[in-house]
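Trying the structure run again after the queue cleared.
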Amino acid sequence: MGSDAHVIVKGGCEQLADEARRRLFDLEQRWSRFLPTSEVSVLNDCAGEPVAVSAETVLLVERAIEAWRITGGSFDATVLGDVIRAGYDRTFDELRKVPVTSELVIGCTDIEIDGREVRLPAGTGFDSGGIGKGLAADLVAVEVMAAGAEGVCINVGGDLRVLGASSDGTWTVAVEHPSFDQPIAHIGLQFGAIATSTTLKRRWLVGDEPRHHLIDPRTGRPSTSDLTHATVIAGEAWIAEVMAKAVLLRGSQQAFDLLSADDAAIVVDERGEILTSAGVDRFTRVAA
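Done. Tokens:
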């Protein structure tokens, strides 16, 4: 899905890490929009018609619909047309300074699921990248623990899920920001998830216009929020990923209003000021 992955397994048999890697590769083959044979690519190619897919892909689409609902549309997996129009029409490593076009429209509300069949509305495109990374981390972490691990940490492109014990009992994650020499926070988890959205890393040019990958579904354009970074702590990585994007898009004045009582967030605005939600001190040491 256009990202690197990092797997840490504590305890269990030596093959568990290899099995986690194989499983992540399997989900990549199902979900990457950059692979023409993936189930997501087939769904996009056949938009308007029902397509039989795996149980994992049905779950991915269900989570995407739920994400659209809980964020009031701030997260919409059918923004693929807007992503392509912004210039992200290939893997990030292959982006060039060329204009691109797309006729795809947004239509998360009309996705249909019937058993193992999924039908995207005609004229739409499904982008699994963000939510797929988080859900992949969730699925693989649960499967590795079920196979006998004492603890596991799965990080897929910055969407991280931990379960069980680390070597010192608590998984500690450093949250980095390109404008700071040191991590802006250290997050300690015994179980749960962390995800970060930022407008500062995946950037490119279309002509002479700078673009980034974080599309605002309300405008169909790269976000103009005054926030440049949002890290969310939640129970599952797919939720953390969804809420990190929603938090960033909403801007500093409304950044935390969608968070549940169990979630927490750290954001950085365009001036470099660090803001935190209520309850973040349960998990973190935040830089001054």
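Confidence is low (pLDDT under 50) at residues 81-105. Worth checking whether this holds up in the mutant runs.
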